[in-house]
Specification:
Blueprint lengths: L1 H19 L9 E7 L6 H8 L2 H4 L2 E7 L17 E3 L1 H9 L4 E6 L1 E3 L6 E5 L15 E4 L5 H12 L8 E4 L5 H6 L5 E5 L2 H7 L3 E4 L9 E2 L2 E5 H6 L1 H20 L1 H12 L3 H4 L6 E2 L5 H13 L18
Parallel strand pairs: 1-2, 7-8, 7-9
Antiparallel strand pairs: 3-12, 4-12, 5-11, 5-13, 6-9, 6-10
Helix pairs in contact: 2-9, 2-10, 9-10
Length: about 325
């Protein structure tokens, strides 16, 4: 009887513990609203969404596709928490009064891995950056990072950048515009650089490398106050991008499959797209290089403190 009583007491204790023990409850995900462009530049984001890395890091990403990044800084805090941009767009937006911050890097342009080339016809008289003065150049935007780099490049080569005529043309249409002679050159990105080379055109060079090598290209920004109040989210955001990059390195074919899904490009085209140099760190010095270029081109950014507009998880 004593043994039976002891067994019953033990069972009662186990049952009580089971009833009183706290149950494991899944923590709700933090939603972040993100604008993106469906090109290889943002592939770590797309892979990290596709393979669940963001979810593992407690984030739910609400994606909105945009055709270009020019007007995205103004949408922060209203429509989006994270948007992609470039240094000139960010610096000009902050100078105009917007309270924005660079929060994570994305890609670097390097001499060993070029994504941007100025393209001309094979029979073009344009041989050097100086020769671009007085010529019509197809550009994604006359205020874009690419066109600003071209003007800097022409000046360094001894040409007159004020004579460069920028003509806004979408990347897919630049080949036909150069071929037809409507423009003399094109500020072109991969994979369209490869397309133009395959059509018999040639490269004059990469203007971004005149700014720096390596040099900051597109990266991520957020509302500055929001970023300072959500450093834990910034940490999980960057960790998820790093996870996406590791997945790309581990399985290039699968990563390109994700790119094909989001971009809508044929798999044969996606297979030939060069991977850029991804780097999610960002520093004030990387922005200051561009600030100095913009000042040379007449932008009133002398008093802009780049240290105030970099907010990271650390």
């Amino acid at each position: 009887m004593r043994r039976a009583k002891a067994i019953l007491c033990g069972l009662a204790g186990i049952l009580a513990s089971a009833v009183l023990a706290p149950t494991s409850v899944a923590q709700p995900l933090t939603e972040v609203r993100v604008a993106y462009i469906p090109v290889v530049t943002w592939l770590p984001l797309l892979v990290a969404i596709d393979n669940g890395t963001f979810t593992k890091n407690g984030l739910s990403v609400k994606l909105t596709k945009f055709p270009n990044i020019t007007n995205l800084p103004q949408a922060l805090g209203k429509q989006f928490d994270f948007v992609p941009t470039t240094a000139p767009d960010l610096l000009n937006a902050v100078a105009s009064g917007l309270n924005l911050a660079a929060v994570a890097g994305e890609t670097l342009e390097t001499s060993s891995n070029k994504s941007f080339q100025v393209m001309v016809r094979a029979d073009s008289p344009i041989k050097t950056p100086k020769d671009l003065a007085g010529k019509r150049i197809a550009s994604p935007g006359v205020g874009s990072v690419m066109h600003i780099a071209v003007l800097h490049w022409v000046k360094l080569a001894g040409g007159d950048p004020s004579g460069v005529i920028g003509v806004e043309v979408p990347f897919p249409n630049m080949l036909d515009q150069v071929k037809a002679g409507r423009v003399d050159a094109a500020e072109q990105l991969e994979p369209f650089v490869g397309q133009m080379l395959g059509a018999g055109m040639r490269s004059v060079g990469d203007p971004l490398l005149a700014v720096g090598d390596p040099v900051l290209f597109p990266f991520w920004i957020a509302d500055a106050d929001w970023a300072r109040a959500h450093r834990d989210v910034l940490k999980r955001w960057t960790a998820s991008l790093e996870g996406g990059l590791q997945a790309i390195k581990a399985d290039d074919k699968a990563a390109r499959g994700v790119l094909a899904k989001y971009s809508g490009l044929p798999e044969a085209v996606v297979a030939r797209i060069p991977m850029p140099d991804f780097d999610f760190k960002i520093t004030p010095a990387q922005l200051d290089v561009w600030r100095k270029v913009l000042i040379e081109q007449g932008r009133p950014l002398e008093k802009l403190d780049v240290n105030r507009i970099v907010v990271t998880a650390q």
